[in-house]
Amino acid sequence: MKFWPLFPLLLLSPVRGQGADAFADHERKGEAALADGLWEMAELHFRNCLAAPGLTPGVKSRIGIRLAESLVREGNPSAALELLEQSFVEKNAEALFWKAQALAGQKRFAEAADLFSHLLENPAAAHRTEAGLTLASLRLALDQPEAALGSLAGLIPGADEKTAARIRLYQVEILLDLGRAAPARAAMPETADITAEDQPLASFLNAQLLLKEDHPAEAEAAFRELLNHADGQTLAHYHAAAIGLADAVAAGGKAEDAAKSLLAFIQDHPGSPLLDTMFGRILQWLPEKPATTDPVLERLALWITPPLLPPISSIATPASGSAVAAWPTYETPSSLTDRLVFSIYARAIGLHRIGTTETKAEAHLLFNRLRIEHPGHFLATRSLYQSARWLLDEGDSEQAFSLLNTLRQTADSTELKGEAAFLEARAAYRKGDPKLAIQLFEEAARSLGAPEARTARLQAAIARLHSGEGGKVHLIQNQNTAPDQELDADLELERALSTTPPAAAAPLLEEFLKRFPDHPRAAEARLAVAEAALSGTAPDVALAKIHLDALEASSEKSAALPPPRLALMRMRMADLTHDSAAAMAQAQAIMDTYPGDPVAAEAAFTLGRNQFQAGSYNDARLVFQKLATTDTDPDRAQAAWLLTARSAALGGTPQSKEEALVCFDKACESKGPLKAIATLEKASFLIDMYRLPEASAFLGKWIKTLPEDDPLQLPAGLLLGEALYAQGSSNESSMVEALAVYDRLLAHARSQPSLLNRLQYLRGTTLEQLPDPKNPGKNREKEAFQAYYSVLETTTPPTEWEYFERCGFGALALLEKAERWQTAISVAQKIASFKGPQAEIAAARARKIKLEQMIFEDD
């Protein structure tokens, strides 16, 4: 089974040893993921299913096919093909269909078409209709439109009316693209046969047909109806309807109104995916010699915001420097929208058409701005080509050649390179350099498609003819004694005083005081009750105050009590009632009055802690450091070293920070309960100081001394991961180590959902930064998505919200980046369904995507 790589997420939900319930859970989740368009999660769950022992051949084959489908749909055809060639999958009835789809995914169109053709010949073949539709698309990609139409025609016999109507609509689309209006009209299905889902498409195609059939008024009405009722339409068709409407208006002889129609639509939809086509139409309908105040050019000017950089004229103009000046090699930060870029380009073209010296100069400046502020936009290369043409027309062939040469070397578009070569060749020929012209015409012929390539070859031949040459052409108590009441009282008091813990002694002491309120040792009992009340994790300040007040009221009875203990109780009361000033004053008084008494150490600790909490870190540090070196209580001494380190760390100077590390080391070296805390805090402090390699080495060495099941593995691992991750920007291997740490911690966090969510978030953010070993040009975003989305695969409300929702929005962002809009909506709605703090934000994201992408569905 060497084919399937081990995914780190298997640590989260292993199948082995969990039996049929785990298998069924993974299969259910896999099928649900397929239905929701979450191909990465489907793949993960089906791989977990295949890892289960004892699968029957039939089950194994079924799961294998679902895995192959997941791989094909997520765009991994190579892995799908390798799987489909394994014996437990290849005989499955669906294997041939998914093999063909995988071949198509590899762009092996001819091989895929051959397999789909075999499926089409078998009426009982799995997914036969889908095979035929895909075959038609492949044949179109192979420039075989007639064969595509034939594939669709072969599906109609035997198909139900609704399916047949959908197939016919596809035929109409193809025929319209071929410009064959009459056969397209004949292929249109009856309205009664068209499903409600397909009706918007049918209406769009009918409007296009009306336009092709030269019925512009009817076409205009049909396109307006589509624009007024957007429900059910795809984003592309809705925006194409706006173009269709403009085309219909133009066909009625109103070109300016047509351009204004598109401009109004662009105003409301500045992010349209069809801006290129729309602006192409606007330029097409712009007069060859527009007026200076042309309304179209005026509208374009309103969309052109002030430049982000200094005036362009101070940087470079095509006529005042080399091609490098017109084609910057750096990219500046830009907030340009596509509409702005298209507006700059179109207005430059229009201004140049006006033809005055001023408008031509402004046109050149607009093109320069476009190239400087947005050099990555395809219009930047197009503007370079256009600038060269203008320069040739203006007689500046040298500068034009420089721009064209730059374009031929830098343009991504092969066709644009060819056009540049052709233009340069023509200019070279006119300058009397036939040899250069021949070379450039042949270069153009290799880049252009027919018939332009033929024209270039012809020009090369003509140039040869005139030069006398020939021609050639080439890409995570005892009972027995009498009762003695005084002895009974003494015994009861001693019994109470010796009871542990203090919380258990308090009720016994109170009972003693009720029975013997005038006992000579009542004051001692009251003091003990007060001390017991203030001990433990839940001090009873009110009870302690009652007894201390009683002692104050009968000072003659409490005179025999140890003064240090009374002073200590007063200090504790002040401390616990948050009277910091009184607590510190009483602590200092105890230290000054009883320096050799054990209470002085507790007073010092209280003084230092209050100073620390008040932000007097240097004063606190002096108190804690003296206590740490003199206290005979090792646990308190260790705590003092730790607090000395914290105080020094917050001292603010580089020297105090270095001294903090020495104090952390002393706390770590001390024997006491705070060793682990001191170690973790030192590591965290090293990270805060950005001494990341030192933090990584320190934590790594300590973690190796911890047992595998030690609870400290989690906090230590999280800190180690943080230190490693922070080094990732300059050391990719450090990021890989961070991921390995997070993967290992998953097993420790399996019973702690909140930590699990945090780990998956950390894994996701790390994976997003790492290149895919199989494709270094891409990052491991699929695995990042699997990490993020895994926390959403729950049917119970989360135990924490922060990392749960961070994961959800991380998954959502990746889907939006990939433009998987329908799946993004589903994930956003799922985040919202948990009704957490960010639920409304998620719901709003879903609504926004629906609106922007024209996705309509029943809510």
Automatic annotation (TrEMBL):
UniProt keywords, alphabetically: Signal
Coiled-coil zones: none
GO molecular function (one): hydrolase activity, hydrolyzing O-glycosyl compounds
Keyword Signal annotated: yes
Keyword set includes Hydrolase: no
Highest taxon listed in the record's lineage: Bacteria
GO cellular component: periplasmic space
Descriptive protein name: Tetratricopeptide repeat protein
Organism: Luteolibacter yonseiensis
Phylogenetic placement of the source organism: Bacteria, Pseudomonadati, Verrucomicrobiota, Verrucomicrobiia, Verrucomicrobiales
